[in-house]
Specification:
Elements lengths: L10 H14 L12 H8 L3 H13 L3 E4 L2 E4 L6 H11 L8 E11 L2 H7 L6 E10 L5 E10 L18 H10 L3 E12 L2 H7 L6 E11 L4 E10 L16
Antiparallel strand pairs: 1-2, 3-4, 4-5, 5-8, 6-7, 7-8
Length: 248
């Protein structure tokens, strides 16, 4: 199959964008081979230097990496934004190849910082649900804990079952409560892995990890889900966005 190059944008950028979009849509999974420079050049009818430059651009973005077999899609951790996009499109929370193991699911009193995050009172009953997420190579890529208002326990009882939920906590909460998440908020900071975090992610104690705090909020301001996750520090997260020009 031969792909076509349009006029305007540099050819290597068009090629890189093609494979970037396949990776971001999940059509190319971590560990999957990309075409060789020679095969890519033949497919796109470009010089080998152009194909090689496209691969180097993808490497610079952390999307692919070299292996003994060639260039493969790099390991990555889905973003909250990509997960909700996948949920809306497919009804499943995680892309193919990813799985979660629920390590805890119980009702506990809210601590100060979790109460503040959920908009409840300190000591109020909340649902606490923890998991470890694994990629297609069975490598742990995230350990996380979700916190949900205790009032949802009766209408969303599966949150207290130590089994994965196909449409994820968010999809399940939306279905059970009739409320739909309209806004998300992510915060990130880097820390050294604690003993528990290092054990879950198969890291050395003190290794750099990325901590994320995330909120899903309904249109009326109700926090449907507040989560804290820990990820290995060597994986890039990418978010693309357009910048509007107020003068245009």
């Amino acid at each position: 199959m031969t792909e076509s190059i349009d006029r305007g944008e540099a050819p290597y950028r068009q090629i890189a964008r093609h494979y970037r979009e396949q990776i971001e849509r999940g059509e190319l999974q971590p560990g999957q081979l990309l075409p060789s420079v020679r095969a890519m050049a033949e497919r796109w009818k470009v010089a080998h230097t152009t194909a090689n430059r496209a691969l180097r651009a993808l490497q610079a973005e952390g999307l692919v990496q070299s292996s003994g077999l060639g260039t493969v899609v790099a390991p990555r951790t889905p973003t909250a934004e990509s997960l909700i996009t996948h949920l809306r499109a497919t009804g499943a929370f995680y892309p193919p190849g990813y799985r979660s193991v629920i390590t805890d699911a119980q009702v506990l009193p809210a601590t100060t910082h979790v109460a503040d995050a959920l908009g409840v009172e300190v000591g109020d009953q909340i649902i606490v649900r923890s998991r470890i997420v694994y990629d297609s190579d069975d490598v742990p890529i995230e350990c996380s804990t979700n916190y949900v208002r205790g009032e949802f326990a009766d209408i969303a009882p599966d949150l207290l079952v130590s089994e994965p939920i196909t449409n994820g906590m968010l999809g399940y909460l939306e279905a059970q409560t009739g409320q739909r998440a309209t806004d998300g908020c992510d915060q990130y900071a880097a820390f050294a892995a604690t003993e528990d975090q290092a054990t879950a992610l198969r890291l050395a104690v003190g290794a750099p990890v990325l901590i994320e705090r995330h909120w899903w909020t309904a249109a009326d301001g109700t926090v449907l889900d507040y989560a804290e996750s820990v990820e290995p520090g060597e994986r890039w997260r990418t978010r693309r966005y357009s910048v509007s020009d107020p003068t245009s």
